[in-house]
Amino acid sequence: MRIGITGASGLVGTALVKALRSQGHEILAFVRPGSAPPEGCESIPWDPSAGKLDPENLSGLDGVVNLAGHNVAAGRWNAHVRSLIWNSRIESTRLLVQAMRSCAAPPRVLVSASAIGYYGDTGDLPVTEESPAADTFLARLCVAWEQEALAARDAGARVVIPRIGFVLSAAGGGLARMLPVFRLGLGGPVGFRTFWMSWISRDDLVALLCWMLTNPDAEGAYNAVAPEPVTNQDFARALGRVLRRPALFPVPEVALKAVFGDMAREVLLSSARVLPARLESVSFPYRYPRIEPALARAVEDR
Ligand SMILES: NC(=O)c1ccc[n+]([C@@H]2O[C@H](COP(=O)([O-])OP(=O)(O)OC[C@H]3O[C@@H](n4cnc5c(N)ncnc54)[C@H](OP(=O)(O)O)[C@@H]3O)[C@@H](O)[C@H]2O)c1
């Protein structure tokens, strides 16, 4: 297949490019001004912030994976960061889909990222794809992001939406930020209360994105998480065991809220007990369905 990827330089995109290339697919990375495509990839120039993308560059692609977006957990949200988080997903997905709709031979499949932030803080309540969206900033973002992607159906595309959980890899994201502290034996649960974390190993997420691209029956939203969410405390204990370090020091909720404000409330301290009901119904072959083996792999994942 000839596959276009937005956000190809990110944590997920880097691993996806490698996996698809090793399977013999041809990869075209969407490249923003001033950047270069990953090794071995052709490039499709675009400038989502300026609304620039030549639709004909998408003609003849078999599929597109849309992963682009300003990092949600990079720091405190102010008005500028919120608009960057929003626009880098909504406007770029709109631009991509408009190009799909106006090119001569549109891609047949669009796999477009969303997040479990769709469900907001679920407390102890398990949620599935059938559950409603919440009314937080991230939930409203996910709803709008998914709607932009679903418009690609008008171009005749099959649209698949992974609602991605906490991606486990030492190569980046939240786990990479936690590791130095845990390696010093100073790690522990984030916050005092026992909340749920819905996670997925980067390997399983990459396999899932490949499955979504190539399986003609995959359509609509899927929770892209492992089948067993864990409490924050169990996560910290499992990571401590994997690293052979104590993991007893909780990071106080009040300190996180003071430093990160709404970002802490909606990302770091939000309970997410999300179940992958649709993937379980098709017996998706997870390689790392349990937290401890997943973490043992993730800490080696570069
Ligand atoms: N990692 C997680 O735990 C997680 C959880 C839930 C959802 N997700 C979603 O899954 C997608 C991929 O995640 P990731 O962890 O790979 O993210 P990431 O490492 O932050 O990479 C995202 C990529 O998006 C592009 N990008 C950054 N700022 C942008 C902007 N202002 N406008 C357009 N593109 C921009 C960049 O790629 P280029 O420089 O190549 O354009 C960047 O490498 C993201 O949309 C993320 O929200 C991730």
Can you offer a commentary on this structure?
With 302 residues, the protein is an alpha/beta fold. The protein has a domain at 2-166 and 200-225 and 274-286: Rossmann fold (3-Layer(aba) Sandwich), CATH 3.40.50. It has 10 helices and 13 strands. The strands form 3 sheets. Strands 1, 2, 3, 4, 5, 6, 7, 8 and 12 form a 9-stranded mixed beta sheet that branches. A hairpin with a 4-residue loop joins strand 3 (42-47) and strand 4 (52-53). The longest helix has 24 residues, at 79-102. It is globular, with a radius of gyration of 19 Å. It starts with a strand and ends with a helix.
Write the layout of secondary structure elements.
Elements: E1 2-6, H1 11-22, E2 26-31, E3 42-47, E4 52-53, E5 63-66, H2 79-102, E6 109-112, E7 114-115, H3 137-150, E8 158-164, E9 166-168, H4 173-183, E10 196-197, E11 199-201, H5 202-214, E12 220-224, E13 230-231, H6 232-243, H7 253-260, H8 262-268, H9 277-281, H10 291-298
Parallel strand pairs: 1-2, 1-5, 2-3, 5-6, 6-8, 7-8, 8-12, 9-11
Antiparallel strand pairs: 3-4, 10-13
